[in-house]
């Protein structure tokens, strides 16, 4: 059985983002075009589909690390803030972006909320493993260097 662990993260996230675009439950809010992903960033993301890519990444992290909460996810998506001539310091990522994505994935039925944090449901596990299986099947037929995954 092929799982999320068998496929490189960048390939999986790209494909899951494409699949999430088809789901009407996962849509970027109106403010997403202007929002930064954290105080450590100077500009909003350049990619027009960044919401779906971040949703796929968050979905994968909940699958791997779950149960997780918003605060732990903020630490994962944080980075160094440039403070000019002062030394850089770590800052957590945007909690609003992560919270909205988790709520949307929960509304889609892929994630559930427990007392310990959010975990992937059986439908979410099936969805991610199905995408991983199709990627592995495509890689085995197309790219010989990727057939080991």
Can you describe this structure?
- This protein has 5 helices and 4 strands.
- It has 149 residues and is mainly α.
- The protein has a single domain (4-144), classed as Arc Repressor Mutant, subunit A (Orthogonal Bundle), CATH 1.10.10.10.
- Strands 1-2 form a two-stranded antiparallel sheet. Strands 3-4 form a two-stranded antiparallel sheet.
- Helix 1 (9-21) packs across helix 2 and helix 3 (70-76) packs across helix 4.
- It starts with 8 loop residues before the first helix and ends in a 7-residue tail after the last helix.
- 25% of the residues are buried.
- The model has no long low-confidence stretch (mean pLDDT 89).
What would the keywords be for this entry?
two-stranded antiparallel sheet; 4 strands; mainly alpha; single chain; 5 helices; Arc Repressor Mutant, subunit A; 149 residues
CA(first)-CA(last) distance: 12 Å
Examine the coordinates and then state which fold CATH places here, giving the name of the CATH topology: Arc Repressor Mutant, subunit A
Structural class: mainly alpha
The arrangement of helices and strands along the chain is: HHHEEHEEH
CATH architecture: Orthogonal Bundle
Query: Which class in CATH terms?
Result: Mainly Alpha
Helix content: 40-55%
Strand content: 5-15%
What is the makeup of the main sheet?
2 strands, antiparallel
Individual helix count: 5
Number of domains: 1
Query: Which radius of gyration do the C-alpha atoms yield?
Result: 16 Å
The number of E-state strands comes to 4
Strand order of the largest sheet: 1-2
Low-pLDDT sequence parts: none
Categorize the overall geometry: globular
Mean pLDDT: 89
């Amino acid at each position: 059985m092929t799982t999320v662990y068998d496929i490189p993260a960048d390939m999986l996230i790209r494909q899951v983002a494409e699949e999430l675009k088809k789901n009407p439950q996962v849509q970027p809010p109106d403010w997403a075009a202007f929002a930064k992903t954290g105080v450590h960033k100077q500009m909003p993301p350049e990619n027009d589909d960044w919401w779906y890519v971040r949703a796929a990444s968050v979905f994968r992290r909940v699958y791997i690390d779950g149960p997780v909460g918003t605060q732990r996810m903020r630490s994962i998506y944080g980075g160094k803030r440039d403070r000019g001539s002062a030394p850089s310091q770590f800052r957590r990522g945007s909690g609003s972006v992560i919270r909205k994505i988790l709520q949307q994935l929960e509304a889609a039925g892929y994630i559930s909320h427990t007392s310990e944090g959010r975990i992937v449901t059986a439908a979410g596990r099936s969805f991610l493993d199905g995408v991983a299986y199709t990627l592995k099947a495509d890689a085995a037929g197309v790219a010989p260097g990727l057939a080991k995954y």
